[in-house]
Amino acid sequence: MDQFDSESYWNRSSSRGFSFDDDEDVLGAAASGSNMNISNILNDYDTISEASFDNSATGSALNLSIKSIISEDALKMLLQEQTLDDRIMSKGVAPEEELRLLRRQVQTTFYNPSPEVTAHKLLIGKCAPLEVFKSLHEKEQLLDAVLKCGGGDAVIGVLLFLKKTLNRTNFLKILEQKPQSLQHYVSFLQEQQNPEVIEVLQYFGKHQEAALLQFKAAMACKDLQQRKRKLQQLIDQYGGDMGVVSVYLQNFEAALKLLELVEKECHTLDNMVNINSTPIEVLYQCCRKHSNWKDQDMTRAISPFRVCGEQHISLAQFEWTALNERTTAQAYADLECVFERVPAWLPMKQKQFHISFSLELAILRLYALQAPTSVLYIFLSKMGNTTEKLALAKRVKCVRAVIDALAGLKDVQQLTQLKDTLPERSEEQFYCENALKGLQTKRWTTDNIKLKL
User: Fold this and answer.
1) Over the stretch 26-65, which tens digit does the pLDDT of each residue have?
2) How many C-beta neighbours within 10 Å does residue 154 have?
3) How far from each other are the two terminal CA atoms of the chain, in whole angstroms?
4) Alpha helices by DSSP H, 311-385
5) In angstroms, what is the C-alpha Rg of the chain?
6) What Cα–Cα distance (Å) separates residue 430 from each residue in 391, 423, 424?
């Protein structure tokens, strides 16, 4: 009989394997912990190499140790992970095998894996028993481990476990001590649209963030009355000293006023606005209905000037909106009133042309909306830089402005060439001839006057 077939041979082997069928071994492993078991396994593996099972001379010469292939720390973690692997029982399994797997699960329940191993398993998406971390200190260690790994899903999983197994005071205290975990938890609540995020932010004094989230939720309401009610609650809640900057409160109040305007004046504005209309869209429709642009009326609810004040619309936004609306409506005579301002520093209080954004942008927009050349000329005449005026006038094909720019540059040659290209006896040709005559006429200056004594 071959000695390898003898049961006594394998019982004498120094590399006797761990058996889950042995009740005493299972209980011993659960009582003594993982470190001693893994150390024994490491020692056994160090004394027995794969080469020792090779009876050939080559195999004996190699005599490789497992520690020369993998580090001791890596091997220890690998063995720990193997002892924690979940086993799924398939149908028709033998009773002995089922008993062995059940014993293994019992061992896993009483076995406390290290936080690092558990964090690693969670990071790669494997199941890991979190219930074995029972004390507050162990749970904090587990959270530190997953935060160190940087896995967002793993952090959320551990935080939800802590929230479930800790009282609220301890859970919030952990979030306060670990700002990174608080950031993960708040992001998770926002993604889930959980109302708890408002309470959490307010608890940690982040009132501005909480107010903005509440404002976003209020503006998401489909019903006008419900949106108004939520906005009013928001204004009442943060009306006092709640750490919210005043500009936020102004925006909340402006949103409520805009809803009230849409509710009352929707029919007046030809039902062109609704609760989802932006302040600029409402302003555009108010410009369309405004008739007296010479008077900045603040009494009417749909006055563009009043809407700008209530909605904190800048002067540049107002002028750009009015420019587009009046030009589209071909009400070009109102444009001068839009851009006329009364300077406070002038005692005569004469109105002057004023524009709050790029004059070149306004001219190009007028040209794109097919405004008449006469309107383009009015805006081109306000440009101070003659060279830029010449280039822009050529671009928008305003001949009269081109002639003025060439006359300002005293370019007689180009003026003469331009006159020859203009239609005979046209208004532009007469204007160009007058500009040439003005440049060619000799003018008296102080240099021409000579005093004779």
Assistant:
1) 434 443 444 444 455 445 444 444 444 444 444 444 455 6
2) 25
3) 152
4) 315-328, 335-338, 359-368, 373-380
5) 42
6) 22, 10, 9
